[in-house]
Every structure is written in C-alpha cells, then in structure tokens.
Amino acid sequence: MADSSSNLKSEAIIDLMKQHFSTDAGKKLTEKIGLVYQFQIAPKKIGINEVTYTVDLKKGEVTKGAYEGGKPDATFSFTDDDFVKVALGKMNPQIAFMRGAMKIKGSLSAAQKFTPDIFPKPSKM
Amino acid sequence: MAMRDLITGATSCPDPSASSSSQNPLGSLANALLGSSSKNQERLKEIPTSTSTPSASQFYSQPHTQLPGSEFDKPFLDANSQGSEFLNRFRSAGAGGFDETWDEIQGDGNQLRLYDGRGQLPPQLHQPTLDGTPQRVLSTFLHSFLDSSRGGIPFHPAPLPVLGLSEGDKQCIRDRSSIMARHLFADKSEEFIHAQVNALLSSLDIDSNVRGKGPMPERHRELEDYWNESQGNLIQGAHASDGWITEFSQNRERYDNPDAWANSFEQQHGANGWASEFEHSQLSSVDQMRGMNMSNIAAMEQTRMLANTLAQNADPKFQNSKFLQFVSKMSRGELIIDDNQVKESALPAPGDWATEYQQQYNHGDAWAGEFLNNKAYPRAGPELWANEFATERQQNGAADDQWVDEFSKLHVNDWAEEFGQQIGEGAFGEGSSDNWAQAYDEFLNEQVAAKQRSDSSRGVYVFSDLNPYVGHPNPLKEGQDLFRKGLLSEAVLALEAEVLKNPENSEGWRLLGIAHAENDDDQQAIAAMMRAQEADPTNLEVLLALGVSHTNELEQNAALKYLFGWLRNHPKYGTIAPPEMSDSLYYADVARLFNEAAVISPDDADVHIVLGVLYNLSREYDKAIAAFEQALKLKPQDYSLWNKLGATQANSVQSADAIAAYQQALDLKPNYVRAWANMGISYANQGMYDESIRYYVRALAMNPKAENAWQYLRISLSCASRNDMLEACDSRNLDLLQKEFPLQ
C-alpha cells in the first residue's frame, strides 16, 4: 500500500503505467498518442470520492492529482471496477461509454485514442 | 439568385470533396447531422404522404393499424400492445407538416453528404425540384439555407411561391432556424446569424419578431419550453404517465432525477461527438447484421434496441431537449470543433450498408439510412421504424412487453444518449469504426451473457455442462492424476465431479482451485477456494491460494485478510499474530509480522512466498523479487514459484528477466497455462505483439476458458494490425488461430 488511504484497484494499473513509461514500449506510446488524459476514479459511484490521476502521454508521466499543465485533452470518469475492466480489455471503452460506465469531458477525438492497449497488463502470480 | 445553384452547392461548395473536411467543419457537422443515407430520397418518395399531403393532420390521422409508408405494408400486429401504444404517443407528439419538410431537408442533406464523401454526384442531384408541393419547395429552400453555411456566405432571400404555412409551422421554422443558424455559424458574429436567419424568414414571409401570438399550438409551447430548458432554466416536470414511459422514467431516476439526463448529456458529451458516434452505431448495427454469428437473439435484441430508441423519440421532450442542449451549447461557443475532428471518414457509404442489409434481410430496405434520418431528427418518419419493429416482432414472436423489460435493464437511457450523441460528426478513422462495430456486437452479446457472468463474478462456482466424469467411481483420484499429468482442463472436470459428489471435500475444492489458477481463471479459482475454505477454514494452502488470487485480482483488502489468516493459522507463527488484529488489518502491520516470521525461520520457503505476495500487494516489487528468489533457493522445483517471480518481475517492468523465469516454470510444467499467458503479457507490454499473440494462442489452446487471455489476445491482434483475425478471436476459432500463429 504505497498509499493506504486509497485501496483502488485502478491505482495498481496506474502505477504499472508509471513504470511502463520507463520502457521503450512506454516511450513509443507517447509518440503514438501525445495527449494528456485525466482519470477520475471513484470507489463506488461516479462523482463521489473521486481520486484524480493524470496520465500524461505527451511527456510519459503519471501523477496523482489534476493536470497542472493546463487543460487535459480528455477527462474520464470511472468507477474503480469499470476502470479496471476497461484498462484490462474486459470491457471496451465504447461499451463503457454506452453503458454510462465511462464519462468523458473534453475532446472526443482525443478520447477516441483511449484504448485498452495503452495500459500495460498486470501479470498474474 | 439561382436557387438551383444554391442547392447543388455550386456557389457554396466549390470543392465538394474538401468541403466537409477542412474548409468548414461546422458545415460538415451539420451535414452529417442531417444524416447520411443515400436511400433516403427514394424512401421519401415511397412515402405517399410525405410529398403529396399538404397537411400533416391528415397524415397522422390515418388508422393506426395501417402504418403509412411502409415497404412491407403489413398491418401492425396488435394495436393494443405497448408497441402500438408508444407509436400512438409518438404520433401525437410529432404532428405537423414541418416535420415532413424537415425530413425532406435531411433527404437532400444525405445526398449531398454522399456527394461529399464519395466524389460521385447522384444524377438526380443536378435536378433539384423547385416547384411541386409546398413541402418540397420549402425543403429545397431550407436546404439552401443550410448550404450557405458551408461557404459562410450571406444567405440571399429568394422569392418563393406562397406556401401556406400555418402559424405553428412558421414558429417552428423560426425557432429551429435560429437554433440551427447559431449552430452552423458558430464562428460568425451574432449579427451575421441574425442576418442569415432574417433573410431566411423574410423569404418565407415569417415575422422574425413575433413570438407567442395568439393561442399557440401545443407542440409549439413545448418547443418554447425546450428552448428555455436549453438555456439553463430547467423545468421540472413529470410528463411521463403510462406504460413504458413510466418504466423509462424509473430507469432515468436511477440517474439522479428525471431531468438529469439533459444535464448529464451536457456533462458527458461535452464535445462535438454525438454526431459521429451515432454514425458509428449505425455502422455497428449494420455490422451486426452482417455478422456471421448473428443469432435470432441478437436480432431480437437489435430490434429491441431500435424500438427503445424509437421509444425514446416518442417523448418529444427528450428529442428536442437533447438536440437543443447540444445546439445551445454550440451556440454559446462551449463546443469547439477542430479541423481534425471533423474530417471525411473512410466509412462505407451508407447506401452500401443499406444494400447489404437488404440482401440479408430481404424485408426492409435501407433501415440504416432511415434510422440515421429518424434519429437525427427524431420526429421524422417514425412509422417506418414502427413497421420494422412490428415485422421483427412478428417473426420472433417476442412477448410484447419484453422489450420494455429489456429497456429498463439496459440502461437505455444512457445508451440512447450515447446514441444521440453520435449523430452528425461523421468522422473517425477506419479502425475506430471497426471498434464501434465490435463494441456494439459485444454490447449485444454482453446482454445475452450477462446473467451467467454475474453469477461467476459473485464468487459462485460455475460448473461445466456435460461432465463425463460424473458417475466416475473415484473422481478425486482421477483428478489428481490428471492434474499431475498437467491436463488441467480434464483435471477440472474430474474434480468438479468429485465436489459434486462430495461437496464438503476440502481437498477436492482446493485442487480444483489450484487447477483453475494454473489454468489462468482466477474467478473460478477464487470460487473454488472459497468452498475449500468453508470446508476447511484453516487450511494454509487454501489461505495462501486465496491471498494470491485476490492479489491477482487487485483486491487488496481481501488478499490481506487471507494472508493474515495464513499467519494466524500457522502452527509455528500463529502466536505472533494477535487475534484482535484481524478486525482492522493494515498492510504495514501484516508485513511486519511476516518479517518477524522470516526471522524466526529463515529457511521456511512458505514465509518468503507469502512475503513476496505481500510485497506484490504493496507494489514493492524489488522486495517481492528478493523474497521469491529467497524462496526459490529453498524450493527450486516449484514451478508456481517461478511464475510468481516472473509475474513480479514483469510487473516491475523487468520483462526480459520475467520471460526467463516463466521459461523455468514452463520447463517444469509445460502445460502451465498461466505462465504461457504471462509470457504473452510480457511480450505485449514490450510492444512485441506478434510474439504475444503466439503465446496467448498457445495458452488458449490449452484452456479455451481463459477469459483474460482472450481479451488480451484481442488487444494484441489489433495492435499488431491483424484485424483480419479478430473475427477468429471473437468466434473463438482456435484452429484457425493456431494455424495462423504457431509457436516455434
């Protein structure tokens, strides 16, 4: 528990993303996407007790908290479970959107580039 | 001024192929907003009333059992059903000649769109009708107004024959054109917009300043409300009264309050995407139709979806508010359209899908286009939908209220909003249109599979059907043998037979859980292990396995609970674990206790294993790797330990090391599905998608039920630009996949 106040599953994936940016594959990703996404993850219900993460796919950085370099290209709101589902390819973003499991603010074309393949997948013990 | 020129776009669209992309994205947005069906024009001609009936009341007063304009001309099945009820509502909501006109504009818009998109001009476009019924004249005229938006040129008033518009119609035109103008000319000044609108209105002999004169028609008052609403003065009101409407609002209430959809639409879909997404949904629908695995269920589902959409349309508050929300937002400059967002798409021309559909379903031509059309301006031509719906229903014999149930279940509220959002932009890359298509497919399948899935996610063990080991004299022994031989899926069946026979057999459940974990199915592993724990609450192996599986599923609290349970129940270390601690577990405390245990007996591999798992939980991977390496010194033949080490290394982005560790595990246990799948993950995380595909396929060949591997395979296939194999993935055609991606 790097941060014991937050037991979000999403944080494991966000953390993995952070490390991923140190790899070649992660660096390629920044060339490919070049956008800044902000994620608002709620434990149970969207909008309530949200934890904000910024995944900067321009610089290859992950930070906790809102984006400080201006306006993110797209902001996504998820519940913890749904974020994990989308990041792991269990639910694709379009479906998440259709079901209202993913809310988007900002540019939709930027949001379109948000696909499960940007997230590294956790390996299983 | 030659009306003809305006309509054909000769003046305003000098370069049609570019006009909808870079020159004026707003124009193309509007264009796409108006739909994209090439079939539409034909269809409109087929509707006898849409071109020849001067008054709408006539049109709508036709008997409900015979829906006009249908290509089927079949009577609506049951006039008392809920289906027809909503149609009645629909109809009563949307009366008025203006709608038909509006419909006409869309028809023209569609053709122009086709023109833009494909560089081919349908011949009839060169011959716009300037005379004929008032509707047609009005239609072409209004269309020319829209055209003027593309070039951003001032709109010239033109003399028109007397159209005999009613006050209500005029009001409608005035309101809608003002709104449209703000939307179309968002980059222009307010004066320009006024000038444009006034030019339009004066041609139509409409006083642009008259508002609310005399008794207003019912619909007009509503329009006014929508406008106000869109301006932010939300008017609370329960307008829903009966049947599905009630159902619908109940559904909506789940989303905070009845009127919240309007707000949430704005919040959710702030950007200009509603248009394009709609188009992709269109594609999706058609793709679904084309799909090989299109089952009757899916067809029914589809129909229900469409009906739901229709149902939504039936409430005028919805349609217009949604539209106006979007438009008013646009008018306030809150929506921005970048050049790159509104670009010509490489989508198949609408006519193609329509034809495709027609070929497959020889009833019904061009519903796709129709759909787009109706949705874009929902009041137009609902009857066709209705007929389609009726026909489908007849075929499938679905219960009348089935779709209503479905409706509430599906969160169609969101769905439809989403859908609404998709109208108009018409611009995504080729790849993403596939995504949308697949998404829709999946969405449908998901509904079908939803029940089963929710069972397994609740930790309920799901047994296989047709288990050949049921009735076996000693399934446990058989299962153990199979497990040892590495035949995991067979072992699962034998062990299932065992636990069906002896539900209290902890060992049967435990081994079943292990088999599932090695088979890369954590959900089933957890379900089995929980049963094992029920039967034997202190079994250390079970507690550790549960801790590992929950860690894999990123469920920290549950994992911590079981790992602490392991310590508590351990004969040697149980004493160092204070029992009261289990009430409120903190990671740091548990880790401290395990470190104490490791000091007590540094040669106990199990302590190091649990420590390694714990450090995984806290994502202190270096410590976890050290713990597992320590354990491996003591237990070098433990294949699952090698896999744990590999997974930890992979999660701390040491992929090369991870692959070496997995290889160790596979040397010890060649059928270790989890390790094969992990190999795939490591290659995929390094961007080596071709390799990852081979490993995923290998894992799946051994256990086709490894859901994660299917999902990851799908991602790798798209990343490796092997979209040609996505269908094999979706239909789980392992033979083909193995042939295509052999593992050297």
Give the SSE map:
The complex is a heterodimer of chains A (about 120) and B (about 750).
Chain A lengths: L8 H12 L3 H10 L2 E7 L8 E6 L4 E4 L9 E6 H8 L5 H6 L4 E4 L1 H5 L13
Parallel strand pairs in A: 1-4
Antiparallel strand pairs in A: 1-2, 2-3, 4-5
Chain B lengths: L2 H6 L7 H8 L1 H9 L6 H7 L1 H5 L3 H5 L21 H12 L3 H22 L15 H18 L15 H18 L5 H14 L14 H13 L12 H11 L6 H9 L5 H17 L5 H19 L1 H16 L18 H11 L6 H10 L5 H15 L5 H8 L2 H10 L8 H28 L17 H10 L3 H14 L4 H13 L3 H14 L4 H13 L3 H14 L17 H14 L4 H13 L3 H14 L4 H13 L3 H14 L4 H13 L3 H14 L4 H13 L6 H5 L3 H7 L4
Helix pairs in contact in B: 2-3, 2-8, 3-9, 7-16, 7-20, 8-9, 10-11, 10-12, 10-17, 12-17, 13-21, 14-17, 15-18, 15-22, 15-23, 16-20, 16-21, 16-22, 19-20, 24-25, 25-26, 26-27, 26-28, 27-28, 28-29, 28-31, 29-30, 30-31, 31-32, 32-33, 33-34, 33-35, 34-35, 35-36, 35-37, 36-37
Write a structural description.
- The complex is a heterodimer of chains A (125) and B (744).
- By secondary structure, chain A is of the alpha+beta class.
- Chain A has one domain: 2-Layer Sandwich (Nonspecific Lipid-transfer Protein, Chain A), CATH 3.30.1050.
- Chain A has 5 helices and 5 strands; from the N terminus they run ααββββααβα.
- Chain A has helices at residues 9-20, 24-33, 80-87, 93-98, 108-112, and strands at 36-42, 51-56, 61-64, 74-79, 103-106.
- In chain A, strands 3-2-1-4-5 form a 5-stranded mixed beta sheet.
- Chain A is globular, with a radius of gyration of 13 Å.
- Chain A starts with 8 loop residues before the first helix and ends in a 13-residue tail after the last helix.
- The relative contact order of chain A is 0.19.
- By secondary structure, chain B is an all-alpha fold.
- Among the domains of chain B are: 274-457, no CATH class; 464-535, Serine Threonine Protein Phosphatase 5, Tetratricopeptide repeat (Alpha Horseshoe).
- Chain B contains 39 helices and no strands.
- In chain B, helix 15 packs parallel to helix 18 (350-360), helix 19 (367-376) packs across helix 20 and helix 24 (475-484) runs antiparallel to helix 25.
- Chain B is elongated.
- The termini of chain B are far apart.
- Chains A and B meet through helix 1, helix 2, helix 4, strand 5 and helix 5 of A and helix 22, helix 23, helix 28, helix 31 and helix 33 of B.
